[in-house]
Amino acid sequence: MNPLPIRMVVAAALIDRDGRVLLAERPAGKHLAGTWEFPGGKVETGETPEAALIRELREELGIETEASCLAPATFASHAYEHFHLVLMLYVCRKWQGTPHGHDGQRLRWERVNDLFSIDMPPADRPLIGTLAALI
Ligand SMILES: Nc1nc2c([nH]c(=O)n2[C@@H]2O[C@H](COP(=O)(O)OP(=O)(O)OP(=O)(O)O)[C@@H](O)[C@H]2O)c(=O)[nH]1
Fold first, then answer.
1. Which helix (H) or strand (E) segment is 55 a member of?
2. What is the dotted CATH code of the domain comprising 6-134?
3. DSSP string spanning 87-125?
4. 78 forms bridges with which residues in the sheet?
5. Whose CA is nearest to atom 3 of ligand 1?
6. For residue 35, how many other CB atoms are within 10 A of its CB?
7. For 77-105, how does the pLDDT look when each residue is reduced to its tens digit (9 = 90+)?
8. Nearest protein Cα to ligand 1, atom 27
9. Where are the domains of the chain?
10. Which tens digits make up the pLDDT trace of 21-44?
11. What residues bind 8-oxo-dGTP, as annotated (predicted)?
């Protein structure tokens, strides 16, 4: 039996009109602080992944989207020291509003091929190749 608690997380690769992807910096004091992640967060009990992602994008970035704009892209299954992460990554090209880091986190738009050289969480690295092939 796997001894680690499972953490279900949803995240979005938001793609702008120039084909760039939005990354958010993980805040100081948090797990993997300073790395650049796809915006998202934990799925709460009883919540669908899509509802969780819509909620997280609203809370974190102040943007609105809907389930029909979230295309499942790929996922990661990664053992961190204290939990096992299942990270579901969606591609989203359509939303309302301009993303702002609502908790003060820095944001950056990057070309997908440049993600390989950015300090992202270890679980994310295997996702980049698949994402690059999709967009
Ligand atoms: N949103 C997001 N989280 C990721 C990515 N990659 C990755 O390993 N994670 C991990 O997935 C977890 C996301 O949970 P979270 O954002 O809700 O939780 P948190 O650590 O910020 O803190 P919290 O427990 O205070 O809410 C974190 O442990 C984070 O390190 C990613 O690309 N996006």
1. helix 49-61
2. 3.90.79.10
3. EEEEEE---BS----TTS--EEEEEGGGGGGS---GGGH
4. 85
5. 41
6. 17
7. 999 999 999 999 999 999 999 999 998 99
8. 31
9. 6-134
10. 999 999 999 999 999 999 999 999
11. 26, 31, 37-40
